[in-house]
Write a structure and sequence with these properties.
Blueprint (H helix, E strand, L loop, with lengths): L8 H8 L7 E6 L2 E7 H4 L12 H4 L1 E2 L5 E3 L4 H11 L3 E5 L5 E6 L6
């Protein structure tokens, strides 16, 4: 699932989070990756501060370690996950558009 940067945190918590076991979410618009939102990011704020906050206010801005090319070997995805400390990498096509998400790769890669 790709989150909109303009989505309210409250909307995410009420509508999206109950439907998934994901802990980390790509944030994008128009097929373009803007950043990554982790449930860990919510811990930076007291619950009373969530009102009015948008995903863009808490997301980690795009970093090359958060994505790989569709042509990259799967081992590179595992290396990126370890390097960035997140359990996901976003897969981009040659035009830089999001085509998928890889998460929870086996340790044996």
């Amino acid at each position: 699932m790709i989150l909109s940067p303009d989505m309210l945190v409250a909307e995410f918590l009420n509508k999206i989070l109950p439907l998934t076991s994901q802990l980390v979410f790509p944030v994008g618009e128009g097929g373009r990756l803007h950043g990554v939102f982790s449930l860990r990011d919510l811990r930076t704020l007291a619950e009373s501060q969530w009102a009015g906050k948008r995903i863009r206010d808490l997301m980690l801005v795009v970093n090359p370690d958060y994505f790989i090319s569709i042509d990259s070997p799967i081992s590179e995805a595992g290396e990126r996950m370890k390097k960035n400390g997140l359990d996901i990498v976003v897969v981009l096509d040659k035009e830089g558009k999001i085509v998928g998400i890889l998460d929870h790769l086996p340790d044996k890669l």
